[in-house]
């Protein structure tokens, strides 16, 4: 699947000073494996923390820059198009010329921009061998192709593991949050409070919650409050004001307005309708 891939460059790169934000458009496929350092990588306007053990994947046409402290990494540039005629010894990432055409490959397409491998042994071995089989050493194209193929499949396996872990994190966080909401819906619950109980940042928690449930945390809280309100309206004779208070609504008028908007009946009308069906 990767037999025709050309290694444009593979080197062990050291950068021993803090860098400025140099914005560039990626021309080729780039895969970097970080051995040390702590940086922020911006890819098409989205920022990712990068540090020891991170693999960064950039694709042709992406607008990128990074900033942070000094770092140490392997850098690999690949030609999947077979149309780039630049000797390895003359290649630079900031090259002029056209952007490499998209490589439509199921393995490459599934890879995220950042992968955090579960272990480093395979990556160290593959990159070390790629460096030994790349400029300025004698170049063995067959060895390069085998190593690139192995690298891509190791990346694919780790990306699946990473996705599964993120799904587990999301499910765990959502389970914790929904249980908290169901037990505390009568109280004031903020996004900050929910993020605190799940140990996640508010924005990240909100994205995970909606991805897992299809609704925002606020909408989920409102649903729980109204479901409990319907139970109280149908099974008790509590005054509407008391039902509203017991379900987390501090204002009876707002509760009545919102209930009617959602169920097309006022709370009192709903109670009468419920009682008529018994």
TrEMBL record:
Keyword terms, alphabetized: DNA-binding, Transcription, Transcription regulation
Instruction: Give every HTH araC/xylS-type domain span.
Output: 175-273
> Record keywords: Transcription included?
yes
- Domain of life per record: Bacteria
SUPFAM superfamilies documented for this protein: Homeodomain-like (SSF46689), Regulatory protein AraC (SSF51215)
The reply on keyword DNA-binding is yes
GO MF annotation list: DNA-binding transcription factor activity; sequence-specific DNA binding
From the Swiss-Prot or TrEMBL record, give the protein name: Helix-turn-helix domain-containing protein
Species the sequence originates in: Qingrenia yutianensis
């Amino acid at each position: 699947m990767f037999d025709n891939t050309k290694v444009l460059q593979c080197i062990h790169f050291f950068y021993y000073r803090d860098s400025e934000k140099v914005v560039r458009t990626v021309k080729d496929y780039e895969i970097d494996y970080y051995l040390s350092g702590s940086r922020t990588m911006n890819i098409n306007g989205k920022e990712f923390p990068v540090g020891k053990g991170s693999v960064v994947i950039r694709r042709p046409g992406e607008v990128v820059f990074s900033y942070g402290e000094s770092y140490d990494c392997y850098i690999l540039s690949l030609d999947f198009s077979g149309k780039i005629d630049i000797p390895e010894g003359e290649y630079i990432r900031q090259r002029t010329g056209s952007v490499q055409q998209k490589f439509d490959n199921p393995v490459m397409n599934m890879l995220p921009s950042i992968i955090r491998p579960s272990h480093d042994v395979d990556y160290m071995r593959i990159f070390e061998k790629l460096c030994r089989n790349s400029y300025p050493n004698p170049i063995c194209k067959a060895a390069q192709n085998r190593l690139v193929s192995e690298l891509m499949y190791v990346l694919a396996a780790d990306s699946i593991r990473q996705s599964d872990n993120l799904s587990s994190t999301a499910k765990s966080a959502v389970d914790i949050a929904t249980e908290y909401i169901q037990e505390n819906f009568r109280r004031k619950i903020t996004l900050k409070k929910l993020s605190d109980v799940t140990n996640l940042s508010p924005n990240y928690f909100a994205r995970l919650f909606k991805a897992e449930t299809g609704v925002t945390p606020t909408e989920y809280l409102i649903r729980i409050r109204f479901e409990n309100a319907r139970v109280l309206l149908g099974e008790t004779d509590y005054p509407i004001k008391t039902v509203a208070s017991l379900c987390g609504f501090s204002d009876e008028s707002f509760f009545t307005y919102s209930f009617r908007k959602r169920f097309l009946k006022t709370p009192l009308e709903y109670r009468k309708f419920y009682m008529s069906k018994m």
